[in-house]
Protein backbone atom coordinates (compact mmCIF):
# COMPACT_ATOMS: atom_id res chain seq x y z
CA UNK A 1 0.00 0.00 0.00
CA UNK A 2 1.14 3.50 -0.72
CA UNK A 3 -0.72 6.63 0.19
CA UNK A 4 -1.00 9.82 2.10
CA UNK A 5 -3.34 11.43 4.58
CA UNK A 6 -5.29 9.92 7.41
CA UNK A 7 -7.69 6.98 7.19
CA UNK A 8 -6.29 5.86 3.86
CA UNK A 9 -4.92 2.44 4.75
CA UNK A 10 -5.30 -0.17 2.08
CA UNK A 11 -7.38 -3.07 3.24
CA UNK A 12 -8.01 -6.64 2.31
CA UNK A 13 -6.92 -8.74 -0.60
CA UNK A 14 -5.95 -5.81 -2.83
CA UNK A 15 -3.69 -3.96 -0.36
CA UNK A 16 -0.49 -4.87 -2.23
CA UNK A 17 -1.94 -3.53 -5.49
CA UNK A 18 -3.36 -0.23 -4.19
CA UNK A 19 -2.47 3.41 -4.04
CA UNK A 20 -4.60 5.47 -1.68
CA UNK A 21 -4.45 9.26 -1.67
CA UNK A 22 -6.66 11.63 0.27
CA UNK A 23 -7.13 15.34 0.66
CA UNK A 24 -9.48 17.68 2.48
CA UNK A 25 -10.91 20.30 0.13
CA UNK A 26 -12.37 23.47 1.60
CA UNK A 27 -15.74 23.19 -0.13
CA UNK A 28 -18.91 21.12 0.31
CA UNK A 29 -19.10 17.66 -1.32
CA UNK A 30 -21.62 18.82 -3.95
CA UNK A 31 -19.20 21.45 -5.28
CA UNK A 32 -16.19 19.08 -5.24
CA UNK A 33 -18.24 16.39 -6.97
CA UNK A 34 -19.32 18.91 -9.62
CA UNK A 35 -15.67 19.83 -10.29
CA UNK A 36 -15.03 16.12 -10.96
CA UNK A 37 -18.01 15.53 -13.23
CA UNK A 38 -18.40 18.57 -15.49
CA UNK A 39 -15.90 18.96 -18.31
CA UNK A 40 -15.86 22.76 -18.06
CA UNK A 41 -14.37 22.33 -14.57
CA UNK A 42 -12.43 19.10 -15.00
CA UNK A 43 -10.38 20.43 -17.91
CA UNK A 44 -9.25 23.35 -15.73
CA UNK A 45 -7.53 21.33 -12.99
CA UNK A 46 -7.04 17.65 -13.99
CA UNK A 47 -3.55 16.24 -13.81
CA UNK A 48 -0.26 16.76 -12.00
CA UNK A 49 1.54 20.11 -11.89
CA UNK A 50 2.40 21.47 -15.34
CA UNK A 51 0.07 19.11 -17.22
CA UNK A 52 -2.83 20.20 -19.42
CA UNK A 53 -5.54 18.17 -21.15
CA UNK A 54 -7.20 18.10 -24.54
CA UNK A 55 -10.54 16.28 -24.57
CA UNK A 56 -11.51 14.20 -27.60
CA UNK A 57 -14.86 13.06 -26.15
CA UNK A 58 -16.63 13.28 -22.79
CA UNK A 59 -19.85 11.69 -21.64
CA UNK A 60 -20.33 11.58 -17.88
CA UNK A 61 -22.72 8.72 -17.19
CA UNK A 62 -22.34 5.11 -16.08
CA UNK A 63 -20.72 3.42 -19.09
CA UNK A 64 -19.72 6.79 -20.55
CA UNK A 65 -16.17 7.65 -21.60
CA UNK A 66 -13.73 10.51 -21.25
CA UNK A 67 -11.16 10.18 -24.05
CA UNK A 68 -8.40 12.76 -23.71
CA UNK A 69 -4.70 13.56 -24.06
CA UNK A 70 -2.59 14.78 -21.16
CA UNK A 71 0.20 17.09 -22.24
CA UNK A 72 3.26 16.91 -20.01
CA UNK A 73 5.37 19.95 -19.20
CA UNK A 74 8.19 18.42 -21.29
CA UNK A 75 5.94 18.30 -24.36
CA UNK A 76 5.16 14.57 -24.12
CA UNK A 77 1.56 13.62 -24.92
CA UNK A 78 -0.11 10.80 -22.98
CA UNK A 79 -3.31 9.27 -24.41
CA UNK A 80 -5.81 8.64 -21.61
CA UNK A 81 -9.15 6.90 -21.39
CA UNK A 82 -11.60 6.80 -18.49
CA UNK A 83 -14.92 4.97 -18.30
CA UNK A 84 -17.25 5.49 -15.35
CA UNK A 85 -18.65 2.27 -13.88
CA UNK A 86 -20.55 3.70 -10.90
CA UNK A 87 -21.80 7.20 -10.14
CA UNK A 88 -23.52 8.10 -6.86
CA UNK A 89 -23.83 11.92 -6.67
CA UNK A 90 -22.31 13.59 -4.66
CA UNK A 91 -20.72 10.69 -2.73
CA UNK A 92 -18.90 8.25 -4.98
CA UNK A 93 -17.43 7.65 -8.43
CA UNK A 94 -15.88 4.39 -9.65
CA UNK A 95 -13.95 4.43 -12.91
CA UNK A 96 -11.63 2.45 -15.11
CA UNK A 97 -8.52 4.30 -16.34
CA UNK A 98 -6.03 3.35 -19.02
CA UNK A 99 -4.50 4.52 -22.27
CA UNK A 100 -7.44 3.18 -24.32
CA UNK A 101 -10.53 0.99 -23.94
CA UNK A 102 -8.48 -2.13 -24.75
CA UNK A 103 -5.48 -1.32 -22.52
CA UNK A 104 -4.64 -4.56 -20.61
CA UNK A 105 -3.12 -2.46 -17.80
CA UNK A 106 -6.33 -0.56 -17.06
CA UNK A 107 -6.78 0.12 -13.36
CA UNK A 108 -9.82 0.92 -11.23
CA UNK A 109 -10.19 4.00 -9.05
CA UNK A 110 -12.86 4.64 -6.46
CA UNK A 111 -13.33 8.24 -5.38
CA UNK A 112 -15.36 9.06 -2.30
CA UNK A 113 -16.52 12.53 -1.30
CA UNK A 114 -17.40 12.68 2.42
CA UNK A 115 -18.40 15.70 4.48
CA UNK A 116 -15.56 16.85 6.75
CA UNK A 117 -17.14 19.68 8.73
CA UNK A 118 -17.87 22.36 6.11
CA UNK A 119 -15.26 20.80 3.82
CA UNK A 120 -14.94 17.53 1.89
CA UNK A 121 -12.59 14.63 2.46
CA UNK A 122 -11.87 13.07 -0.90
CA UNK A 123 -10.27 9.64 -0.96
CA UNK A 124 -8.94 8.22 -4.22
CA UNK A 125 -8.33 4.47 -3.95
CA UNK A 126 -6.69 2.98 -7.04
CA UNK A 127 -6.35 -0.78 -7.54
CA UNK A 128 -3.98 -2.07 -10.22
CA UNK A 129 -4.33 -5.50 -11.90
CA UNK A 130 -1.01 -6.63 -10.35
CA UNK A 131 1.45 -5.53 -7.68
CA UNK A 132 4.09 -5.18 -10.41
CA UNK A 133 1.94 -2.63 -12.29
CA UNK A 134 1.30 -0.74 -9.06
CA UNK A 135 5.03 -0.67 -8.28
CA UNK A 136 5.81 0.45 -11.84
CA UNK A 137 3.26 3.28 -11.58
CA UNK A 138 4.81 4.41 -8.28
CA UNK A 139 8.46 4.22 -9.39
CA UNK A 140 8.42 5.04 -13.11
CA UNK A 141 5.42 7.38 -13.30
CA UNK A 142 5.48 8.88 -9.79
CA UNK A 143 1.81 7.98 -9.32
CA UNK A 144 1.66 9.01 -5.66
CA UNK A 145 3.19 12.43 -6.24
CA UNK A 146 1.07 12.89 -9.38
CA UNK A 147 -2.10 11.92 -7.52
CA UNK A 148 -1.30 14.31 -4.69
CA UNK A 149 -0.59 17.11 -7.17
CA UNK A 150 -3.87 16.37 -8.97
CA UNK A 151 -5.88 16.61 -5.74
CA UNK A 152 -3.97 19.77 -4.83
CA UNK A 153 -4.97 21.22 -8.22
CA UNK A 154 -8.58 20.26 -7.52
CA UNK A 155 -8.46 21.95 -4.09
CA UNK A 156 -6.93 25.11 -5.55
CA UNK A 157 -9.46 25.25 -8.39
CA UNK A 158 -12.48 24.74 -6.13
CA UNK A 159 -11.20 27.26 -3.58
CA UNK A 160 -10.70 29.88 -6.31
CA UNK A 161 -14.14 29.12 -7.73
CA UNK A 162 -15.75 29.57 -4.32
CA UNK A 163 -13.98 32.89 -3.94
CA UNK A 164 -15.39 33.98 -7.32
CA UNK A 165 -12.03 34.24 -9.07
UniProtKB/TrEMBL annotation:
InterPro entries in the record: ASHA1/2-like_C, START-like_dom_sf
Cross-referenced Pfam families: AHSA1
Gene3D superfamilies: 3.30.530.20
Superkingdom as given in the UniProt entry: Bacteria
Signal peptide extent: none
Domain Activator of Hsp90 ATPase homologue 1/2-like C-terminal as annotated: residue spans: 26-158
Similarity-based family: Belongs to the AHA1 family.
Protein name: Activator of HSP90 ATPase
Gene source species: Salinispora arenicola
Amino acid sequence: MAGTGQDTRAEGATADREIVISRVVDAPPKLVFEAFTELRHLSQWWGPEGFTTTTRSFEFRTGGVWDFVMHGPDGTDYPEWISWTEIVPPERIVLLHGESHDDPNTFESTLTFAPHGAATRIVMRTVFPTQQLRDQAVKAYHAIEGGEQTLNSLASYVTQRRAGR
